């Protein structure tokens, strides 16, 4: 699945990712965690990456891969490690997208 998205398309994107992840075999908490992580990345792309992004979801053997890209400037010091951010408190305030998505178990 490849999908370009804007803020207006985030709900539909979430439903499409849920369906794709379920087809790939994710269930229960793993499915819900995956959806939260993808939603946070897509929302971050819209908010910080020029108002739109592209999501690629594919399965390779037993691994489900999701890539979210945008046209933002990126991380100037490289991709931060999950350990560099405290675990967010729920409900999360704005600015918790990266810690939430990177804290999701693989």
Structure characterization notes:
There is one protein chain. This protein is an alpha+beta fold and 106 residues long. It has one domain (2-103). It contains three helices and three strands. The chain has helices at residues 10-23, 28-48, 97-103, and strands at residues 2-6, 52-60, 63-69. Strands 1-2-3 form a three-stranded antiparallel sheet, with helices on one face. A hairpin with a 2-residue loop joins strand 2 (52-60) and strand 3 (63-69). Helix 2 (28-48) packs antiparallel against helix 3. The longest helix has 21 residues, at 28-48. It is globular, with a radius of gyration of 13 Å.
* Spatial arrangement of strands, main beta sheet: 1-2-3
Count all strands and give the number: 3
Shape: globular
Oligomer status: single chain
Q: By helix and strand content, what is the structural category? A: alpha+beta
Query: Uncertain segments of ≥5 residues (pLDDT<50)?
Result: none
Helix content: 25-40%
Total DSSP helices:
3
Report the order of strands and helices. Answer: EHHEEH
């Amino acid at each position: 699945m490849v999908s370009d998205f804007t803020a207006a398309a985030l709900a539909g994107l979430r439903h499409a990712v849920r369906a794709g992840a379920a087809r790939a075999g994710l269930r229960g908490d793993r499915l819900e965690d995956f959806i939260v992580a993808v939603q946070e990345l897509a929302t971050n792309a819209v908010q910080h990456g020029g108002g739109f992004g592209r999501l690629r979801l594919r399965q390779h053997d037993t691994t489900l891969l999701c890539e979210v890209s945008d046209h933002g400037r990126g991380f100037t010091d490289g991709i931060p490690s999950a350990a560099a951010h405290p675990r967010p408190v729920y409900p999360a305030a704005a600015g918790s997208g990266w810690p939430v998505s990177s804290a999701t178990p693989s």
